[in-house]
Amino acid sequence: MPASENNSPDNQPPLVLVPESAEDFTRRRSRIGWTVAGVILAALAVAGYTYKRYTDPMHAQESFDSGTRLFKIARFNQAILSFDRAIALKPDLVDAYLMRGKSYVGQAQPEQSLADFTKVTELRPSDPTGWIARGAAYLDLNNFQAAIEDGTHAIAANPKLAAGYNLRGSARRAGGDAKKALEDFNRAVELDPSPANYFARGATYQQIGDHQLAIADFNQVIETIPDLASAFFARAESRRAVGDVAGAHQDHLQGRILDGH
Questions:
Q1: Could you read off the pLDDT of 65-86 as tens digits, one per residue?
Q2: Which of 1, 38, 135, 161 could form a disulfide with 147 if both were Cys (CB 3.0 to 4.6 A apart)?
Q3: Three-state secondary structure call for residue 236
């Protein structure tokens, strides 16, 4: 028989299928299983991330609201914990930093509040709230220059904000510059003729020896808040300085009555 006939397709030996071993089958099924499991886990991860992004802000708001309620009843330590959680869930929740800083101030820890108030100024630089809060903390810490600078930032953010002038005036007066402070308090009273601003200006008039004007400002305070002991004590000092001994004595007695003494 010719060699070419032996090589014809019809004469090739039939293919024999090698049976798949149980081990190979198990391995193949395992690879498929892991692939499916990976797809499922990836889908779950995406779903979990989406759910977390959706729910975290809500949980952050709940924690913030809880902290605010605790702050209002002066439970500052617990309030701080609530604001901690709110910030952990939503790091850009500006008001949580603000309220946590105020809670530290409430605990007489103004130095602890500075980082939070600074964060507020970074996240909302055009909002005077953070500048006012941090400036007040600096004032408590006797860092008068820093308080003046923050008051200036607050005024730049809102030139009609009386609190900015009050803050800067308080820092200037505490730092020994009563005349510059008076300029700020005049502007504060012009923008907001409140007892706080009248009292601050009256105290400044008193410091520079202009007691008649100081008395006039304390009169405004007492007219609005007739049970404010500190206003009577302050007016008594100025009345005594201008020679009104009887009026000073009367104010001092009224202050003691209101103060519970």
A1: 999 999 999 999 999 999 999 9
A2: 135
A3: helix
| Cα–Cα distance measured from residue 83 to residue 80, given in angstroms and rounded to the nearest whole number | 5
- Maximum pairwise Cα distance, the chain: 149
Distance of CA 17 to the CA centre of its chain: 75
What is the rounded CA–CA span in Å between residue 144 and residue 40? 60
How far apart CA 96 and CA 87 sit, in angstroms, is 6
Q: How many CB atoms lie within 10 A of CB 224?
A: 14
Decide if 171 contacts 144 (C-beta within 8 A). Answer: yes
Query: Please, how many CA atoms are within 13 Å of residue 21, restricted to the half-sphere of its CB?
Result: 3
CA distance 245 to 217: 19
pLDDT digits (tens, 9 = 90+) for 164-220: 999 999 999 999 999 999 999 999 999 999 999 999 999 999 999 999 999 999 999
Cβ distance 231 to 225 under 8 Å? yes
Look at residue 23 in the predicted model and tell me its pLDDT. Answer: 59
CA dihedral sign, ordered 64, 65, 68, 70? negative
Vertex 121: Cα angle to 116 and 137 (nearest 5)? 55
Torsion angles phi and psi, residue 227, rounded to 5 = -115, 25
DSSP 144-157: HHHHHHHHHHHHHH
- Lookup: tokens for 28: 């193949």
**Token reading at 24:** 């190979």
Instruction: Report whether 209 contacts 201 (CB < 8 A).
Output: no
- Read out DSSP for 47-64? HHHHHHHHHHHHHHHHHH
